[in-house]
Amino acid sequence: MVNFRKTTVIAAIAALAIVPVAACSSDNSGTSSSASSATTAAPQPVAQIDALTGKSTAVALDKGFTDALTTLGLTPGVLGTATLENGSVSFPITGGHVRYYTPGTVNPYVQGDINHANSGLSLAAGPTTVQLTNFDIDPGTSVLYGDVSVNGASAATHALLFNLDGSTLKPLQNGADNTAILQGTRVLVSKDAAALLDKTFNTDAVKAGLLVGIATITLNTK
Asked: CA-CA distances (angstroms) from residue 38 to 1, 27, 33, 41?
C-alpha cells in the first residue's frame, strides 16, 4: 500500500480523485489478463493519513440546543483541554487515522477514527453533573463515541453519544498554517444519549435527533 504525504492526501480528497482499482493488460489474443484471474486485487485507498496530529473538532452550538439546555436548567461547560468561546465548543484532535477510497469500491469509502482524548463537555443542574469525555469520531459509521460519568462516577465507556449527518458538508477548504477544513456536518443527540440524560436529570425533554450544532474539523496537512 502506498502512503502519501499529508499534503497529497488532502489534495486527493479535495479533488475526489478517481483511480483504477486494478490495472488491466491484454495479451496478443485480446483477452484481459486481469479478467482471467480468479482473484481480484483488494481496493487500495486513494489517500490516507496514518497518524493524525491535530488540530481540532469544533461545534458551533445551535440556538435550539442552548435554548433547550436553558429550559431544562442545564449549564454547559468544558473539560480538560476543550474550550468554549463565542458559542462554539472546541476539542483538540489527539490522534487517529483516516483512509479515503474511490466511492463505490468500498463501503464505507471513508474509514478510520479521529480521537479527542482528555477533553469533553459537561452538563450540570443542581448537585448533578454529567461529563462527556474522550470523543472518538468514526467517519465510516457517522457516529461519535465517548465516555460518560455522573458526579465523577463512570456511567458508560465508549458510548454512542452523537450521530453525524454529513449531507450538509461543504467542500474541503484550505486553511491557514498548512491546515485543511471540513465544515458543515450536523451533530445530533443519539437515542442512547437522550435516554441517559433524561434518566439522569429526571426529564423526558431530551429527544433523540436534537441538533447540537454544526461541526468544523481542522486537520494538519504537514
From this structure: 21, 17, 10, 10
